[in-house]
Amino acid sequence: MIDMKRSLRILLFVSPFAIAGLLYLIFQFTDPATIGPGGVLGVFILLYLGCLTVVFILLRFGLYWMRKLVELRKDSKVSTPQRMGIRKAYYIASVIAFAPVTFLAMHAYSQLRVADVALVVIFIAIVTFYIVKRR
């Protein structure tokens, strides 16, 4: 029997591809006029979940490999990065994954200007800073 940790890791790596496949099918066989408001909401949710899984994978394993590289160079004066817990990585990933969905929604209403992008980036930076500093 496969243990729970391994099956969750497999699901984590397979889910972006499954979400991309679902989005591909939706984009190929429907359009916003025929899919309706529920379908558009479903597309936004799938985009969010896809971004969430990719950012979570990058955070968890990117920081893991960065820590391993720093540990290999013991003679360097750079301190070893601290481990990030799964919960904190999930919180940060959920905030960062909200940005592409926000940009897409703003673009749909022709409201995507430099000032708007700057505001979203500042908002995400502040929330991420709060999550990182929170114990």
Characterise the protein shown here.
The chain has one domain (4-133). The model has no long low-confidence stretch (mean pLDDT 86). α1 (4-29) runs antiparallel to α2 (32-72), α2 packs antiparallel against α3 and α3 packs antiparallel against α4. It is globular and about 60 Å long. The chain has four helices and no strands. By secondary structure, it is mainly alpha-helical. Helix content is 81%, strand content 0%. It has helices at residues 4-29, 32-72, 86-108, 114-133.
The average pLDDT score comes to 86
The total tally of domains equals 1
Structural class comes to mainly alpha
Distance between the termini: 36 Å
Strand portion: under 5%
How many individual β-strands? 0
List keywords for this structure.
135 residues, mainly alpha, 4 helices, 81% helix, 0% strand
What secondary-structure arrangement, pairings included, does this model have?
Elements: H1 4-29, H2 32-72, H3 86-108, H4 114-133
Describe the structure concisely:
The chain is an all-alpha fold and 135 residues long.
